[in-house]
């Protein structure tokens, strides 16, 4: 058994240990949490930027560059997921935030470091940074730009200038893509595409400088999604109505058509395609070239309608042509009918050239011979 | 709404084929061709040795009649694939179709003494059917031409649906000698110029002969008395008598009424010319016009209810139509130039006339309301139109220019085609086409 002294000793040690433990962790965290100071620093960034613009870049830029690589080395092992941790490391060097503060300078910095020749072109790029106006839109761009800057700086190095160019080019396509998306959004599949792109945007920042532009694009996307949602809803409202009602409508229409036709039966399907205009004209010409009209005769004032049947070879069955109607007297009608019959029979020779697959369409023929346009005037 | 539209659309799509299937193919043809109908006339079979020549001549006459109309074209015998050796043998239509003969005329001729019998059949080659029934004509060998014309008339009528005009005669003024001393006689001939006969001698000037409706008489104007007078001549015996007209100085331009019992003519009295009508049996006269202008050349409509005539009441010679009993007249010619010698068509739908305009003469036709005027000829001097019995052809006289100019007769289809001279020797003018002979 132990003496009270041991108890006192044990309690004292435990308390010491607990104090040490609690005290150690407590004291460490509060220090890290002070990263909030960074936000305060961002407020100074503007001044720093102005100062940076005024102050010689080389001095600060060089130190910045080395710092950035450090971040680049750390991120590779831990992809963007470490972003939440990212804020932790920066705290270590208090300056980094300050260096990050000059995100505007970074663009010019990398070019200067990598390729001075290319830099001159990019300085033009700084123009985009002026997206400062975008800053007015929201504070979101700033934090994200900070993140993207960190990641991009690591990868772009090889082709910085090219990447920048591409970025600009891509910006246009992005816009256009977005426009297309908007158009596609009207289609049922559109929404899916947009979501994919959105995901890509979230991922893209880590890969390419495009992230700098997408923040600008995003504002416009939120709007399209809304209509997308509305449209799909509208569609869903209509589509269910259409598919449901149309089906019975088609049935009704079919039934109505069949009823109207008197007997919608198989023959209608067997009839095949209707005679085309050229086929009808060809037939008409082949007959009228044998229709001999005597303009001075009384028969030239008579219109007759005759009917006949053709066999599959295009010949008049039994050479029988029947008179259906006439608007003249008996004598003139006979003459007009005989002229029409001669025309039909004389020009059939080996059979009228008609489409064999449409025999059902021309097996029975009715021709009206109207000489009114050939009368003497 | 959408449902209804969809229903209608589907119904139309389905009903269309069904309807197309159930109905025949319907076409409308409005443009044909204008060309002669081809026909073949194998030499008629001579059923007796004496009939050989007549059969051949008669066959050729049928061909001439038909081809002369301009509406038919002969397929020459040299193109024949098969011959018709017997009137009764079946026709090999395929052989005639092969040479594109649309009509086939086969016949047989029998001569017994001076008796002639002609039989014929007409076939529609492409339908393989006979048009009408076979016909037979009997007569004398001297009248073989008339029998040939009869066959041609029957063929013409069966194909065209109109009456023929081949077996008809024309009375006209035969002219001889120079213009300043021209001798004129009444003459009559077949429509084709054959069988010419003179009805009067050349002792007096004769003008404007007009056949009676049945062709038995001829009205004409004679200057035998020094003044123009109207005579009636019996064609059969050449007997003649002067028509008793209303009192006046000159009577001319006579025409028979459709029944042949009355004569309508012009009478000039005291410098005024008007139209009168005289009943041949009673001798009663009726004055039909009373205008101070010149009214002449009356021609009755087929139904006898109206008269078309020429008048200068408007200041220039124009055509007018009035009731057969006189009264108010309406002008039907309004074109440029002067219109004269109107003749009402046997069909009743047209009026033929002579038109003088811009120094030339024309034969033309217009509808009875004056519309659709068409000029069929044009020359230095065309005048005196007369209608064929079927109203299809117009014959007229044409005079050539100059002191040595001569007058001759021409015929033209009312379509303006087939203008040709009547084959006759010597000068001829002022034709009047008689009716088809019985």
Count of alpha/pi helices of chain B:
4
| Oligomerization status of the protein chains | heterodimer
The average pLDDT value of chain A, as a whole number, equals: 58
Q: In whole angstroms, how far apart are the ends of chain A?
A: 148 Å
Question: What is the radius of gyration of chain A?
Answer: 45 Å
What is the rounded Rg of chain B? Answer: 27 Å
Residue stretches of chain B low in confidence (pLDDT < 50, at least 5 long) are 14-21
Uncertain residue segments of chain A:
27-31, 55-270
What is the CATH H-level superfamily of the largest domain in chain B?
Answer: TolB, C-terminal domain
Strands of chain A, total number: 3
Largest sheet of chain A: 3 strands, antiparallel
Strand content of chain B: 35-45%
Shape of chain B: globular
What series of H and E elements makes up the topology of chain A?
A: HHHHHHHHHHHHHHEEHHE
Concise account of the structure shown:
The complex is a heterodimer of chains A (377) and B (438). With 377 residues, chain A is mainly alpha-helical. Chain A has helices spanning 4-33, 36-54, 57-73, 95-100, 109-114, 132-137, 141-154, 160-185, 190-207, 214-217, 225-244, 246-261, 266-270, 277-288, 330-346, 359-362, and strands at 304-310, 316-326, 364-369.
Description:
The complex is a heterodimer of chains A (377) and B (438). With 377 residues, chain A is mainly α. Chain A folds into 2 domains: 36-225, no CATH class; 277-374, Fusion Protein Consisting Of Minor Coat Protein, Glycine Rich Linker, Tola, And A His Tag, Chain: A, Domain 2. Helix content of chain A is 58%, strand content 6%. Chain A is built from 16 helices and 3 strands. Chain A has a 3-stranded antiparallel sheet with strand order 2-1-3. In chain A, a hairpin with a 5-residue loop joins strand 1 (304-310) and strand 2. Chain B has 438 residues and is mainly beta. Chain B folds into 2 domains: 37-160, 3-Layer(aba) Sandwich (Rossmann fold); 168-436, Neuraminidase (6 Propeller). Chain B contains 4 helices and 32 strands. Chain B has helices spanning 2-22, 51-68, 93-98, 144-160; strands spanning 25-29, 37-40, 45-46, 72-74, 103-112, 115-124, 129-130, 135-140, 168-176, 183-190, 197-198, 206-211, 217-222, 229-234, 240-242, 250-256, 262-269, 272-279, 285-287, 295-300, 306-311, 318-323, 330-331, 338-344, 350-357, 360-367, 374-375, 382-387, 393-399, 407-413, 420-421, 427-436. The longest helix of chain B is centred in the first third of the chain and has 21 residues, at 2-22. Chain B is globular and about 75 Å long. In chain B, 45% of the residues are buried. Classes of the chains: A mainly alpha (377), B mainly beta (438). Strand 3 (364-369) of chain A pairs parallel with strand 1 (25-29) of chain B.
């Amino acid at each position: 058994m132990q003496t009270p002294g041991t108890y006192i000793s044990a309690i004292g040690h435990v308390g010491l240990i607990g104090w040490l433990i609690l005290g150690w962790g407590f004291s460490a965290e509060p220090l890290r949490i002070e990263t909030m100071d960074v936000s305060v620093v961002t407020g100074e960034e503007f001044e720093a930027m102005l100062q940076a613009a005024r102050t010689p870049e080389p001095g600060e830029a060089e130190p910045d560059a080395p710092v950035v690589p450090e971040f680049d080395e750390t991120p590779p092992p831990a992809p963007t997921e470490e972003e939440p941790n990212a804020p932790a490391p920066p705290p270590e060097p208090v300056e980094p935030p300050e260096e990050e503060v000059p995100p505007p300078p970074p663009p010019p910095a990398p070019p200067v470091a990598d390729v001075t020749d290319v830099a001159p072109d990019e300085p033009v790029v700084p123009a985009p940074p002026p997206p400062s106006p975008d800053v007015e839109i929201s504070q979101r761009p700033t934090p994200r730009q900070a993140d993207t800057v960190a990641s991009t700086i690591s990868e772009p190095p090889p082709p910085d200038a090219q990447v920048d160019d591409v970025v600009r080019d891509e910006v246009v396509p992005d816009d256009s893509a977005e426009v297309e998306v908007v158009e596609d959004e009207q289609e049922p599949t559109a929404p899916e595409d947009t979501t994919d792109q959105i995901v890509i945007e979230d991922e893209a920042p880590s890969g390419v400088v495009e992230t700098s532009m997408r923040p600008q694009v995003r504002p416009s996307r939120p709007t399209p999604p809304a209509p997308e949602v509305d449209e799909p809803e509208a569609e869903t409202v209509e589509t269910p109505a259409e598919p449901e009602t149309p089906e019975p409508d088609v049935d009704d229409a079919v039934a109505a058509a069949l009823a109207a036709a008197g007997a919608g039966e198989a023959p209608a399907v067997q009839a095949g395609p209707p005679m085309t205009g050229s086929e009808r004209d060809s037939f008409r010409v082949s007959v009228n070239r044998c229709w001999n009209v005597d303009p001075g005769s009384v028969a030239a004032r008579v219109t007759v309608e005759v009917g006949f049947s053709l066999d599959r070879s295009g010949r008049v069955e039994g050479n029988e042509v029947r008179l259906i109607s006439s608007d003249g007297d008996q004598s003139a009608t006979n003459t007009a009918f005989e002229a029409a019959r001669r025309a039909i029979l004389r020009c059939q020779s080996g059979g009228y050239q008609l489409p064999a697959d449409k025999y059902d369409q021309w097996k029975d023929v009715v021709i009206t011979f109207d000489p009114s346009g050939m009368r003497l005037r | 709404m959408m449902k209804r539209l969809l229903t209608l659309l589907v119904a139309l799509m389905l009903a269309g084929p069904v309807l197309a299937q159930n109905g025949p193919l319907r076409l409308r043809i409005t443009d044909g061709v204008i060309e002669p109908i081809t026909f073949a006339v194998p030499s008629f079979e001579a059923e007796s040795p004496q009939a050989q020549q007549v059969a051949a001549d008669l066959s050729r006459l049928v061909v001439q009649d038909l081809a002369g109309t301009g509406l038919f074209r002969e397929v020459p015998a040299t193109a024949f694939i098969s011959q018709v050796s017997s009137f009764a043998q079946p026709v090999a239509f395929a052989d005639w179709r092969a040479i594109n003969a649309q009509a086939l005329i086969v016949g047989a001729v029998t001569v017994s003494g001076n008796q002639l019998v002609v039989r014929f059949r007409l076939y529609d080659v492409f339908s393989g059917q006979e048009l009408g029934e076979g016909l037979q004509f009997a007569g004398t060998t001297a009248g073989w031409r008339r029998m040939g014309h009869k066959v041609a008339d029957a063929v013409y009528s069966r194909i065209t649906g109109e009456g023929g005009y081949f077996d008809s005669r024309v009375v006209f003024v035969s002219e001889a000698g120079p213009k300043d001393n021209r001798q004129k006689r009444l003459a009559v001939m077949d429509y084709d110029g054959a069988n010419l006969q003179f009805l009067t001698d050349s002792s007096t000037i004769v003008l404007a002969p007009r056949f009676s409706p049945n062709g038995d008489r001829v009205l004409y104007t004679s200057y035998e008395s020094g003044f123009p007078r109207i005579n009636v001549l019996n064609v059969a015996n050449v007997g003649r008598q002067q028509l008793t007209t209303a009192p006046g100085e000159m009577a001319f331009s006579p025409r028979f009424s459709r029944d042949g019992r009355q004569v309508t003519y012009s009478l000039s009295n005291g410098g005024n010319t008007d139209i009168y009508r005289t009943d041949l049996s009673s001798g009663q006269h009726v004055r039909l016009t009373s205008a101070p202008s010149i009214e002449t050349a009356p021609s009755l409509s087929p139904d006898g209810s109206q008269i078309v005539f020429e008048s200068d009441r408007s200041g220039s010679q124009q055509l007018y139509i009035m009731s057969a009993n006189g009264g108010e007249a309406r002008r039907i010619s309004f074109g440029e130039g002067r219109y004269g010698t109107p003749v009402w068509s046997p069909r009743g739908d047209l009026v033929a006339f002579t038109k003088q305009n811009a120094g030339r003469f024309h034969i033309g036709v217009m509808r009875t309301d004056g519309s659709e005027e068409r000029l069929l000829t044009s020359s230095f001097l065309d005048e005196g139109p007369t209608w064929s019995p079927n109203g299809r052809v117009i014959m007229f006289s044409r005079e050539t220019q100059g002191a040595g100019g001569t007058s001759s007769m021409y015929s033209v289809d009312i379509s303006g085609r087939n203008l040709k001279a009547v084959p006759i020797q010597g000068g001829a003018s002022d034709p009047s086409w008689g009716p088809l002979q019985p």
